[in-house]
Amino acid sequence: MGNKTIKIGNTSVGDGESVYVIAEVGINHDGDMKKAVKLVEEAKKSGANAVKLQTYITEYRVPKDHAVYGILKQCELSHNDQKELFNLGKDLDITIFSTPFDNESVDFLEELNNPVYKIASFDSVNTKLLNKVSSTNKPVIMSTGMTSLEELGVAWKALGGNDDGTGCDLALLHCVSSYPLEDKRANLAIIQYLHSVHEGPVGYSDHTIGTQIPIFGVAAGASIIEKHFTLDSNSDGPDHSMSADPQTLSELVDKIRWIEEILGKKDMKIRDAEEGSISYRRPC
Prior knowledge:
Elements: E1 5-8, E2 11-14, E3 20-26, H1 33-46, E4 50-55, H2 58-61, H3 69-74, H4 79-92, E5 95-100, H5 103-111, E6 117-119, H6 127-134, E7 140-143, H7 149-158, E8 170-174, H8 189-197, E9 202-206, H9 212-219, E10 224-228, H10 246-263
Parallel strand pairs: 3-4, 3-10, 4-5, 6-7, 7-8, 8-9, 9-10
Antiparallel strand pairs: 1-2
């Protein structure tokens, strides 16, 4: 199912394309608009392709007696704030997009011309939300934490996918829904498994600490890397400790570009490095 590449804005993402790096800001702005602006600016400086936000109405996301209600409410950006961040992305030439958690948020993101929708692992079985996102006819990136193969098939149909692989521009991100994630539990073999069941782009959404595992993710076949991003990994909050700060994100982007060079292209021919060895060939 799916096409080998999808289009995010003017950028092709997927097989044969440069790895697409997403700085997952999420709620790491702590509800502070000055921090949110700084995060977008630092993501651009770090070389990321895109910044991902979260768009939600807290009361629709969790009950008021839920343990994280207070945190989510504090970090709920206003529509005006989000509009400002989308405009900032245009000014800085970095893509801004978001994960919606309710139908009303999808409607609002359409007003901002959100270029691609991210579906969180927690919502891979939320067919109501998937149907709503499908109605936008925009490309979709979906994380697959906690998702079975059967549930993935149901999600594909809910997003408008057809049996012949048409109907939805979908990228899948391997993800383990543990925060933070131990390196040895990253289960990167799933990246190749997803390639075997999905013809569209496959990437990796990382919850480990540091840069090593997402680099291995690229070596394992990920064409998208999503990494949580913060100004200070020592800040209080649920996601900061597993997030990359600006220096770490810069290092991650540099290492991704380095490993892309090492991996090279999928073609068989005489390569530039082999020119000096041609005279030693022994045809019959």
